[in-house]
Design goal:
CATH architecture: Orthogonal Bundle
CATH superfamily: ACP-like
Strand content: under 5%
CATH class: Mainly Alpha
Radius of gyration: 13 Å
Number of strands: 0
Order of helices and strands: HHHHHH
CATH topology: Non-ribosomal Peptide Synthetase Peptidyl Carrier Protein, Chain A
Number of helices: 6
Distance between the termini: 23 Å
Shape: globular
Length: 97
């Protein structure tokens, strides 16, 4: 799927999960856990991703979805599910602009 089209479509959680999984893959060595992530998967506890890499993941997601994630939203992005909710919110905000 082309990046520019991501902001203009109503994405389902499963689609977002695939994109989040692809985005975090380079930042974790926990491949078994990565293969079976769900909304409750914690980036730090389960995937052993450090806080500096978490910032990189957020930046990658911003670029991938052409959205801006503020510090307050970034602080919430500790699990896969929370990240998907932030992305969905930001994509929805783009629809109103």
């Amino acid at each position: 799927m082309h990046v520019s089209s991501l902001k203009n479509i109503n994405m389902e959680n499963e689609d977002l999960m695939v994109i989040v999984k692809e985005t975090i893959a380079p930042y974790t060595e926990e491949t078994d856990i990565l293969e079976n992530i769900d909304k409750d998967t914690d980036f730090i506890r389960d995937l052993k991703i450090n806080s500096a890499s978490l910032v990189d993941i957020v930046l990658d997601l911003e670029e991938r979805f052409t959205i801006e994630i503020d510090n307050e939203s970034m602080a919430k992005m500790l699990t896969v599910g929370a990240s998907i909710e932030v992305i969905k919110t930001k994509l929805g905000e783009g629809d109103r602009e």
